[in-house]
Sequence to fold (121 residues):
Amino acid sequence: MPVPVSKGATGIITYSPDGYMCVNIMGPDRPTFASSDFMGSTVNEKAAAFETFVGYCGRYEVNERERFVTHTLHTSSYPNWTGSGQKRFIEMTGNRIRLTAPPILSQGNQVVGALVWERAK
Fold:
């Protein structure tokens, strides 16, 4: 799966009190489509958009004792994740939370993704 997360990436993660979550992350300097037609982009434009964005939503459950959260995905920009449980290890410091994923396969390599989120003021 292409991973758009790099220095300069932006996004938002939301956890609701009733057990739902949503995350959207986009890489920096995403190119826009040449056409203003919502469905009128080229195959190359669509590929570039997919490679610079990840988003998913679903339910979440926190395991406080073992310090992880499981996101059970109802939707995902990466189709293989739809319906799956995605585990993220939690580290909290002040108004920041670091979520670290177990190793995943990305472009033939095992990688560990970690994101640091800061609470909006």
Q: What stands out?
A: The chain has a mean pLDDT of 91. Residues 10-118 form a domain with the Lipocalin fold (CATH 2.40.128). The longest strand covers residues 53-63. Residues 2 and 51 are 5 Å apart (CA to CA).
